[in-house]
Design brief:
The chain is built from ten helices and six strands. It has 222 residues and is an alpha/beta fold. The chain has a six-stranded parallel β-sheet, sandwiched between helices. Strand 4, helix 4 and strand 5 form a beta-alpha-beta unit. The chain is elongated. The two termini are 26 Å apart. This is Response regulator.
Amino acid sequence: MTIRLLLADDHQIVLKGISFFLGLQPDFEIVGEARNGQEVVEMTGSLRPDMVLMDLNMPIMDGIEASRRIAESYPDTKVLVLTSFSDRSHIVPALRTGAIGYMLKEVAPEQLVEAIRSAYKGNVQLHPDIASALLAQLSPHASEQALPSSKEALELLTPRELEVLVQLTKGLSNKEIAQALVVAEKTVKTHVSSILSKLNLADRTQAALYAVQVLPSGAEQG
């Protein structure tokens, strides 16, 4: 298995450093390097990488808009944000574009490698320093209604819905969840819709991010 990566960063030294290190990994192939948002969108269209490692502060077009356009035009390409911005005003819009995760540039190199591999499998990735900052901002109606606390959130879900929520943290599709829980795929779809409605969340990615916060330690691996 080879993960084809397109790197996007407007700082050449940073870009070359990341490219050199990731290029040493036997299962990574660096297919291109972009220095602005417009370039990364165009290169995604021509190269069709498995994943884009996306900086946010870039000229011509920022990383958030570039991520949004990639999600709309090339949904098979995953976007993993890699930036120095740790504030909610950047985190939430970036994740709402459909990005598979949000990592900070201060992350240890080996942790970045593992995050890329895990994101490639469909697992949501969050830098540990920013996970706790997301909870109150995940709902599209957060300004109108506060999200429930951890205990209240869990009490809203049925035991089966809680099992489905755990599976969502693994980035599994409805079909894969159905196989894991030995239920019909249609049943899983119904449970996912119910979970999103009860927790006032917009999509599966938000549900997975929410679950990272509200589930007891170790539950995600259960």
